[in-house]
Specification:
By secondary structure, the protein is α+β, with helices and mostly antiparallel strands. It has 3 domains: 242 residues, no CATH class; 61 residues, Membrane-bound Lytic Murein Transglycosylase D, Chain A; 166 residues, Glucose Permease (Domain IIA) (Distorted Sandwich), CATH 2.70.70.10. It is built from 10 helices and 22 strands. Helix 4 runs parallel beside helix 6. The longest helix has 21 residues.
Amino acid sequence: MNSVNVSRKYSPFFYITKPTGIVIIFFLLLLAGCNFPDPETSALVDAGSQQTGEPENLTPNGLVSPTVLPHGSLLPAETPSELDEGYIHYTTQQGDTVSALASRFNVPVEEIHVDYSKTPQTLLPIGLELLIPDILGKTLICGEPLLPDSEVIYGASVDNFDATSFALEAGGFLATYMEVVDPETMLGPDIVQRVAIETSTNPRLLLAFLEYRSGWVYGFPEGAADDLYPLGYGAGGDTGLYKELMITAKLLSQGFYGWREGNLVELKFFQGESQRLPPGLNAGSVALMHLFAGLYTFDGWDHQLCEPASFINFYQNMFGNYWDRATKVEPYLSADIQPPILALPFAVGETWSFTGGPHITWQTGTPWGALDFAPVTGESHCAVSIRWVTAAAPGLIVRSERSVVALDLDGDGDEGTGWVLVYHHVAAEDRLPVGAWVEQDASIGHPSCEGGQASGTHLHFARKFNGEWQGVEAPFPLILSGWQVFADEKPYQGFLQKGDDVINASPCGCGESLIMREE
């Protein structure tokens, strides 16, 4: 396949001055944090056939038709009546909640006409017909669904695809690129795979975006060896492929989870213009739109995403029909899903400190789904603890590297399917290897300061479902040994509650944060 480089050097980010770049990097490159008390800085060889022809199922504006995938729709009432006047019909899609819909449509929760509702944050059944007041007004002109949710996250559609193998076979500059990352020397394809699995971002999307912006996957662009910003962000001193891919993952997450939760309802383009997002979009489409909005003015964004020679068709030519892939795995979120029963991730009879309440699970933009626990032992503040972190449920170790252990609860060996528990800051010493099956309460490894920028020994604990990071509250509340987790208005705050007992998060490791596991 010929390499394609779509005007990367004309990206506004490429010409960012250094002071502006510093401001932008401050907001875009915040890493997942853990408190003790300071925040931390916290990625298969069937690539499919290479398609070079035009996709068959194009809409009049050149976009791939999404009709094969259930998604939200906005329709006028088929039979006008007094009830329908001033309302639109909306068909629910996966991940919808009343609270998120209220935000997207800019209406109060109580004005959404719905027969099914437990709480505003409860997942709605897919395909439910709703009447919602039509008061939003003008929205983004290019507002068709562009990408399924499953093409953004590291979920079931990734299947046995491996970015490393694909990139090496492609044979472009990426296959020869090397970079020092924390402080390991890594080959370019391995960097892509690392970012994909660690941030739970679809590796196909990362590879396609890299090829679209730089031509590195298949080609050898002139000056590639000296290019500090292969994706064109130009974010100050944060140079190299790894950090540029991490920015990409963050922008995707901000769009994906922001839309899912109803916190992001408009796009802000480079140089400040804003446009309201149509409420019938899905999270995957908004993720891609938000990514491109960070690189282009509105006119450039429209050209890159909404015209026939757009990224979306480039992506299909590179990796085949993504809507067809999605029909095999979506919907992967539904109202009847039950979260797993979990225990506190340390041994019965031990006292630990709840040092960090709900905060981002990994990169900036992910839900507040992570907790921090620190052992109370009297050891030095950053020692590899004598205490063990333990399995909160039975499962299979599917990842054990770089201070992370991923525990696959369905045991199929695929981190992109089912419930997965992610343990961070687990020391290399005594850490269980990939392939080990553990029962609940089995020792996994020792908490430490390894990985990121931790100021004290602790464990960062989070959950994923089918590759999608989950928050601590509805629709899938996090309960550990009977203690339900509640977030506060600010990250790292919040509390645990069991009956009338409450334990508040505190980075000091003092009395109010101490918790003993009793069973």
